[in-house]
Amino acid sequence: MLLERIYDEDLAQASYLIGCQATGEALVVDPRRDVQQYLDLAAHHGMRITVVAETHIHADFLSGTRELAAATGATSYVSGEGGDDWTYGFEAERLHEGDTITLGNITLTARHTPGHTPEHLSYLITDGAFTDEPGYFLTGDFVFSGDVGRPDLLDEAAGFQDTRFAGAKQLFASLRNVFLTLPDHVQIHPGHGAGSACGKALGALPSTTVGYERRFAWWATYLANDDEQGFVDELLSGQPDAHAYFARMKRQNRQGPALLGERPAPRAVSTDALARGLSEGTLALVDTRPVDQVHAGTVPGALAIPSLGKAATHIGWAFDPDTDDADLVVLAQDAQTAAAYADHFVRVGVDALIGYTPTLQGLPTLVPPTIAPSELGAFLAQNDAAVLLDVRNRTEHADGHVPGSAQLNAGKVLFHQDQLPAKDAGPLVTYCQSGLRNAVAAATLRRTGYDVIELEGSYAGWSAWAAQQDTPQNEITGAAR
After folding, report:
1. Residue 58's pLDDT is what?
2. Which candidate in 27, 142, 215, 237 could, as Cys together with 51 as Cys, close a disulfide (CB 3.0–4.6 Å)?
3. What CATH number is attached to the domain comprising 422?
4. Average of pLDDT values for 26-41?
5. CA 239 – CA 250 distance, rounded (Å)
6. Structural domains counted in the chain
7. Mean pLDDT of the chain
């Protein structure tokens, strides 16, 4: 048996290719939407992909199940559990508790493990060439290394009300009735790693075992003591913000993401054509340079995506394809680099990248306004309408913030402008921890019409400066005004 983990550092998301070397058949679980890597991996091992399966309706990325099945002719399998509200809207075989998929010598057994979502399936894998007992468990967003999937995303990002409590109890039952009934040696291969918003304490280890989690996971004591309420309370406390684009992912993944097919390479866009498109609003520029270079001068209205490594995450914050019909032109040295950005973008359903420009020369530029920590207090005192905005997670804000600041996560600013003052009310002074997330959020807000000033050094810079002052912190920013 072959088992390969395909990991996306951008979204902290794992998919898996499982192959039977005796027959040359392969199965992929939870593929992302840019599917070439799976095709290349199967070809490398001399295998053909015949089955594609999902664990659940994902919220954090756009599924590639339909895309990979269309590219290979593979049969798709999705959950048939969870009731009418969780029924997939596209053609695929439905799996229920105990159903199996056979792939040569390999058997996958579907186990219904609700909690993170009502329809969630996990897959027990038995390598029949060696044994008739399962040895591997693909747990999706059910069990991670050191954590379990959060049950509050349906409330947090998908518009449901108070489903978190029922979901937390379902997770407790799934752990007790499924996970802890397995032998300690069974290897766990989860759907996410550290950095994912699908849990609050995910470990960085790519895999774990039933026995290790039974003994050391934070939830183990609650299960051992049959303390459901203690488990629920601990699980629901301190969960990080969910990105607003998760709601769109849920909807599209349930309906079935649009098929991309063969995608054309991004084309070079001339300076004249770009300037004209920017003026007409038919094009939007994605500035991919580091934050310090963006701060030295960028194109008015440009989005800021400071690194390829987090391009999917950040474009999901900065661009809403449901409401914005502009085509995207990325600042990139060549078509190959631009195509890499396009691969990241389609993972969150942003399919609008059509071209690239290698330079900003000949385009109008502006220097985004910033303010030093030493100037912040006086500025706020002189501008009563100014709003100080922390764009970090609410848990970070709770651990310490610039006094007087409101909090709205960078992943929500575009989608929750109702929580911000009117665009003509006064300037927003924004900050994150180090400045990277703030650059993304600030550029996004400027493109929508806000007057945004970025705090130099963000919270880390302000904290270092404030520590050198004799004045109490709440007086430094005029928070008592």
Report:
1. 96
2. 27
3. 3.40.250.10
4. 98
5. 19
6. 3
7. 94
